[in-house]
Amino acid sequence: MFFWLSKLFTLLIEPLTYIFILVVLALLFHRNPRFVKWCLGLALGVFLVFGTYFAPDLLTHLLENQYQIPAEVPRVDAVVVLAGIMNLKLSTPEYIEFNEGIERILTGIQMVKQGHARTLLISGGTGSLYDQEKKEAPLLRNFAIEFGVPESQILMEFTSRNTYENAIQTKRIMQEHGISQIMLVTTAIHLPRAMACFHKLGIDPIAYPVDFQLAPDRKYYISDIIPGPGAFRRSSAVLHEYIGLLAYKLAGYI
Questions:
Q1: Burial, 56: exposed, middle or buried (Cβ in 10 Å; 0-12, 13-18, 19+)?
Q2: Which entry of 111, 126, 197, 240 is 20 to 30 Å from 26 by CA?
Q3: 47 near 23, Cβ under 8 Å?
Q4: Cα 2–Cα 104–Cα 251 angle in degrees, nearest 5
């Protein structure tokens, strides 16, 4: 039930959704000037706050700064790569269409090939509400093999649909294969929620954030005060994480 509700609720955290709703309300109640001004003013506020980079950058910074890339990469039993980085509709066993976050699997491959991890553990099925047939983990497994990781050094699970289920299934595989120490690789803004899920289950991974959105020396220019699609995408991504943290806390997942 939580999975279905979370997917439906995702639609309600998009800033553009609220702008659309407010404009529609203004049109429907056009005979009430005071209400129209209130709706349009609020829509403009949402547009400016989440359509420019200042607010989403601040929210992103607060998440990305919670974990840093280790100064010295330790040796672990397994590097765990969380899926959720491809367009499953367009992907096939012969061709993978990646979204943002390809650094996750590339980092996992690198860790194994450089000897920092004995095993590459790929966790993730599909987060789609409509198509449960295609799974990410098998496709990422084939991708890793093509990039030189021996098949014998790859484990995977393809039943998990969200971050909490990633943690549950990873723990199961760890117990089955005698894995004790793991490195957890995922997008930097997603790492706080992922780490919290693993900690809840009594697992203490070494955090390895990738796919950072903010440069350490981020500078702002005049163009950044003009609302644009890039800022809205960042707003949607970071709001998804904050709402996810709240929802997971309420559900007892973290």
A1: buried
A2: 240
A3: no
A4: 20
CB of 45 closer than 8 Å to CB of 15:
no
In order along its 254 residues, the chain shows pLDDT tens digits of: 555 555 556 666 789 989 999 999 999 999 999 999 999 999 999 999 999 999 999 999 999 999 999 999 999 999 999 999 998 888 888 888 998 889 999 999 999 999 999 999 999 987 665 666 789 999 999 999 999 999 999 999 999 999 999 999 999 999 999 999 999 999 999 999 999 999 999 999 999 999 999 888 888 888 778 888 999 999 999 999 999 999 899 999 99
Tokens of 175: 């117990």
pLDDT of residue 219: 82
Answer yes or no: do 54 and 177 share one domain. no
Q: What share of residues in the chain are helix, strand, coil (percent, to 5)?
A: 50, 10, 35
* Domain span including residue 101: 76-210
Report the candidate in 185, 233, 179, 192 with the shortest Cα–Cα distance to residue 209: 185
3-state secondary structure 80-98: EEECCCECCCCCCCCCCCE
Distance CA 210, CA 104 (A): 6
Please check whether residue 223 lies inside any domain of the structure. Answer: no
Instruction: Give me the number of domains the chain comprises.
Output: 2
One domain for residues 19 and 100: no
Cα distances (angstroms) measured from residue 155 to each of 175, 181, 226? 13, 15, 46
Burial class of residue 236 (count of CB atoms within 10 Å of its CB; 0-12, 13-18, 19+): middle
pTM of the model: 0.88
Residue with tokens 């491959």: 109
